[in-house]
Amino acid sequence: MFGRRLPKINISLSIFLCGLTFASNVRAEPLIKLVAEQVQKLDYVFIAPNEKHPQNSRDILAQAPDGVLVSVGTERGFISASLGAGIDHLIQLDSSFEVVAYNQINAVLLALSRTREDYLFLRFQADHSRWVSRLASSAFDNPMYRKILSSTHWDAWNRDVRAAKSHDYSDFHRRWDGQKKPCHDCFSGANYLFDDVLYTKLAEMAKAGNIEAHFADFGRVNYIESMFRDMTATGKKISILDLSNAWEPQYLTTEKLARLLETIKPYVHPKAILLLSRMNNVHQSFDYFGFDFRLIAQFSSTLEFLKVHVPSNRNIQGLQNGVASIPSCLKLQSATTSFKGY
Questions:
Q1: Which 3 state secondary structure label does DSSP give 98?
Q2: Comparing C-alpha atoms, which of 96, 70, 108, 100 is closest to residue 214?
Q3: What is the DSSP letter of 37?
Q4: Whole-number Å distance between alpha carbons of 323 and 72
Q5: What is the 3-state secondary structure of 235-257?
Q6: What are 211's strand-pairing partners?
Q7: Do 105 and 153 contact (CB within 8 A), yes or no?
Q8: Under 8 Å between Cβ of 312 and 303
Q9: What is the C-alpha separation between 224 and 94, in angstroms, rounded?
Q10: Which element (helix H / strand E) includes 258?
Q11: Cβ contacts of residue 74 below 8 Å, gap of 6+?
Q12: What are the CB-based long-range contacts (under 8 Å, 24+) for 76-81?
């Protein structure tokens, strides 16, 4: 029940800001473990969900073991966590303070919500005083949540999320009915805003403190390794590492991506999946590619795996909307027409 008070736990806060790590032990309710800078706007180009067919990643998510989803971006992480049956913990990492703030605000609203309809009220209609009063009467009232639900953040959310002109938001914010949207199958069966089962899974994770949003630069792996080390100390392992299209050279060089994968190897489940996406210019939508970490381990080095399967020319060698594992990789090598690169 929403009103049941959760037991207090000890949380170590690690704030990654300008390359510095500050740690302090506090006693608090389960909460998001990083408070971003107070942002004045939420109109960063990657805030609105631009991957409009996340349902196409279902087969990949279904093959992942139980555990932690590590994701970049905003709604991509929430949607994947809601769709992945075995995902019980979501860690969202991004190098944009606007993305981090968006994720933190949304996670708190999920934690404070009582039903899906109530969540929609908090997300789309509640004024700042209602955010504050709901927090004050909840089991989650603490200084960090108050900072996340500040008047500055409410102003940004009200202007840049609720009243956003972006088509990406209009597709996500409208109930899917197959008729009224410009994109008739956008987010079909994958939108927790209008699905009680998907919403409930996310809300329960948020209430349990199992949604985190951190500022982190994937290109500077020494600043995030300690986070994964702390996570595995609790017995959890990374089930899915979802990099979206951050693997592309304009975001991460092949060498930096290899270093990232090498760094997190000790913290992933043996059957974990690397999830990547790439724009399909023919269909004007994103394709999804999963790679079993056991396949990655077959190569002499992670860099060698990337050169073969994720070359810098964007011609991913894998199974479109599927997982390339050791057996499927052998099949692909014997029938190259199965490769879905462009």
A1: helix
A2: 100
A3: P
A4: 19
A5: CCCEEEEEEECCCCCCCCCHHHH
A6: 90
A7: yes
A8: no
A9: 11
A10: helix 254-264
A11: 46, 47, 48, 49, 92, 99, 102, 103, 106
A12: 76/49, 76/51, 76/242, 76/244, 77/103, 77/242, 78/103, 78/106, 78/192, 78/202, 79/49, 79/54, 79/187, 79/190, 79/191, 79/192, 80/54, 80/240, 80/242, 80/275, 81/201, 81/202, 81/205, 81/211
Question: pLDDT tens per residue, the chain (342 residues)?
Answer: 333 333 322 222 233 222 222 233 322 333 344 454 577 777 667 788 888 899 999 999 999 999 999 999 999 999 999 999 999 999 999 988 899 999 999 999 999 999 999 999 999 999 999 999 999 999 999 999 999 999 999 999 998 898 876 666 888 888 754 445 557 788 999 999 999 999 999 999 999 999 999 888 877 777 788 888 888 888 999 999 999 988 888 888 889 899 999 999 999 999 999 999 988 876 677 899 999 999 999 999 999 999 999 877 667 888 888 888 765 544 444 333 333 332
Query: Helices 116-124 and 128-136 meet at what angle, rounded to 10?
Result: 130
131 DSSP assignment: H
Residue 142: other Cβ atoms inside 10 A = 16
Identify whether the C-beta of residue 270 lies closer than 8 Å to the C-beta of residue 293. Answer: yes
Asked if 268 and 296 touch (Cβ cutoff 8 Å), the reply is no
In whole angstroms, give the CA distance from residue 339 to residue 318: 6
What is the identity of the amino acid at 247? W
**Tokens 């000890």 correspond to what residue?**
10
Rg of the chain over all Cα atoms, to the nearest angstrom: 20
Residue 192 in tokens: 């927790």
